[in-house]
Amino acid sequence: MTVNCSRLLVLGAILIAVLGLPFSASAEEKYYLSLGDSIAAGYQPNGAVGQGYADQLQVKIPSFRLKKLGCYTDETTVAMIHGGACLYPHHTQLAEAMDFLKNHKNSVALITIEIGANDVMNCSITRPLDMGCIHRALTAIKTNLPSILHELRVAAPGVPIVGMNYYDPYLAYWLLGDRAFATDTLSAFDQFNDTLERVYKGAGSPVANVEGAFSTTDFATQVVSPDFGTIPLNVARICQWTWMCVALGPDIHPNKEGYRVITRAFLKVLPSPVEPEPER
C-alpha cells in the first residue's frame, strides 16, 4: 500500500486547526551537550551513576536528549585540547565535541562546560600552598579555556554555552584544626573562580554560581552540625554536599544532593524556556 505524503500533511494541518494537536512532518531531535571533567561526568566514589548535574538538568529539560562527553578521570584544560587519560574515538574531548556538533548541526540546543579544577588541583595540596604552581595553572586556564570556548562557538553559533565556577572542597581542613590552611585554600579558590568568570564572561557565556550556592566564602555564619558541632556554614556545606567528611572519603566530588545544588545553579542562568527549580 502506498502512502500519499501530501495527504498526511493536510491531515496534520486539519488536526492542528480542529483539535489543537501538535504535528510535525519531520520533528527534529534537540540535544544537550555536556562537557568537562569528572564532575561533569557525575562521578561519585560509591559508584552511583546517573545522578550528576548533567543528568539532573536533562530531567528538567526532557525535550533535549543528553550527550555526555565529560571525562571520569583527571581532565584538565590541556587534556581537553591535546588528550589525556580518557580515550575518545577522536582522541580528545574537544575533538569529540567538534565531531558531534558537525554531525548534529543545528540540532544542539545547549552546551554546558565545567573544566579547570584539575589544572589547579594537580598542584600538591601542601602547607603552605604551592602558589607558584597555582599561578602556572591559572595561566594555562587563561590560555586554554578561551580557545576551547572559541572552537565551540564557531562549531555551534548561537547555541548557549554555560560554564560554572567551583566550591572549595579543602575547607574540610577546618575540621582537622587547621583553620589557617582552610582559609589559604579559599584564597586560592577565589583567584581560580575569578579567572574562570573572567574567561567565561569574556566569551559571552553565563556562569553557574556554584561558589555562591555552596556558601563557599561564608566563614561568618555559624551552624550546628550533628556530627561536628558548631562550624562555619561554608565548612558545613562541604560536609553536607560532598564526600570530604565521610568514611568513604575524603573525596572532593559532590554527592547526589551536592549535584542537585549544582543543577539549581545552572538552572538559574540557563536561557528561556528553561525555568529555575524553586528553592527549598
Word description of this protein:
This protein is of the alpha/beta class and 280 residues long. Strand 8 (242-243) and strand 9 form a beta hairpin. The strands form three sheets. Strands 2-1-3-4-5 form a five-stranded parallel sheet, with helices on both faces. A two-stranded antiparallel ribbon has the order 6-7. The protein has a two-stranded antiparallel ribbon with strand order 8-9. It has a domain at 27-166 and 194-211 and 256-267: 3-Layer(aba) Sandwich (Rossmann fold). The chain has helices at residues 5-19, 38-41, 53-60, 77-82, 93-103, 117-121, 131-155, 179-202, 210-213, 233-241, 256-267; strands at residues 30-36, 64-68, 108-114, 161-164, 207-208, 222-225, 229-232, 242-243, 251-254. The chain has eleven helices and nine strands. 44% of the residues lie in helices and 14% in strands. Mean pLDDT is 89; it is low at 1-26 and 275-280.
Any descriptors?
280 residues; 44% helix; 14% strand; Rossmann fold; two-stranded antiparallel ribbon; alpha/beta; disordered C terminus
Care to give the gist of this entry?
This protein has helices spanning 5-19, 38-41, 53-60, 77-82, 93-103, 117-121, 131-155, 179-202, 210-213, 233-241, 256-267; strands spanning 30-36, 64-68, 108-114, 161-164, 207-208, 222-225, 229-232, 242-243, 251-254. The protein is an alpha/beta fold and 280 residues long. It has a five-stranded parallel β-sheet with strand order 2-1-3-4-5, with helices on both faces. A two-stranded antiparallel sheet has the order 6-7. A two-stranded antiparallel ribbon has the order 8-9.
